[in-house]
């Protein structure tokens, strides 16, 4: 009786809370306007275009080769990474490196630390890598914060690497989520997204650009962003063409490919795709692949090594991290100046590994047990969505 007056009050408070919730959602980002090249200038703004940054001639432009691997890093695939990349150098004697779009489940963080210390880039590919694809297509900003923002903290902690070294993301299944990934990137100080394929802007290839203004890129896996998100970079996945001239954004998604035991044909296939860039406008050449494809096809692996040996001996080709490509685009310099630069410098970060487990996690009500190699003290439960440091008690 005494409290009955409170009930309407609660409803009012509740209604007010709901109102402020929905007005937050209404505070949408502004729609991006057509790009104005006079207003949009480097280093922090670039219109979507196939023009070479800095108005360089193609022959003066470094040809960047961007090798990326996706998903968890474990004791099996790290063997391939070591074989392919250890002691590999570009012509300027700087380490030839790759970018790893890391997903959390089953990742061994001691190995993440190892790859980081070899100069490779660790980037974000979500905590859960959930299916179905609509989970990502319909993902709002809050989901992106928990999948990627929290993954940055998780990875920094368990791999003992600096959070600010993680600058980029790739969406699982390359499934775009409209504006929400880019809005999240602004909040978590992430610089670029490398999830957006182009199949029409491949010859000449599309160079990286920012989302200050409307993108002219073809949207292969909608929804693509249409809001203005200042200073956030799109590193387009310029598709390869397979033997039937069909586009493919990842090498392992090409359909018309040479026979899997024909090393020479695979080498020619790779070089043909490379030359579209090298003999064209030198847009960064993406070699986007999953490790299993190389492991299960030794001739493809040998062709890849041959290709890398070739480009590592070319005076104007450089295998670098995705983030290094963005940094060059922001401040483009001709190749003769680029080769004189000192190599990228970073502080190595030690791992004192612990073997953690069994650790329990609960997803969709199913409890699973995991083992995890960590460079930090063992968590009480398996790190997961909403519990990125594994500090909450294990599910029972
Ligand atoms: C992105 O933001 C713009 C501008 O607010 C809006 O018009 C568009 O519908 C949004 N896209 C998605 C997929 O939500
Ligand atoms: Zn993946």
Can you give a write-up of this model?
The structure is a single chain. With 396 residues, this protein is α/β, with parallel strands linked by helices. It folds into two domains: 3-338, Alpha-Beta Barrel (TIM Barrel), CATH 3.20.20; 352-396, no CATH class. It is 30% helix and 16% strand. It has eleven helices and 15 strands. Strands 1, 2, 3, 12 and 13 form a five-stranded parallel β-sheet that branches. It has a four-stranded mixed β-sheet with strand order 4-5-8-7. Strands 6-9 form a two-stranded parallel ribbon. Helix 5 crosses helix 6 and helix 7 packs parallel to helix 9 (298-311). The longest helix has 21 residues, at 6-26. It is globular. Residues 1-24 have low confidence and may be disordered. The protein binds 2-acetamido-2-deoxy-beta-D-glucopyranose and zinc ion (ZN). The site of 2-acetamido-2-deoxy-beta-D-glucopyranose (NAG) has 8 residues, from loops. It comes from Loxostege sticticalis. Residues 61-135 form the NodB homology domain. Residues 1-17 form the signal peptide. It holds the Pfam family Polysacc_deac_1. This is NodB homology domain-containing protein.
Outline of this structure?
It holds the Pfam family Polysacc_deac_1. Residues 1-17 form the signal peptide. The chain is an alpha/beta fold and 396 residues long.
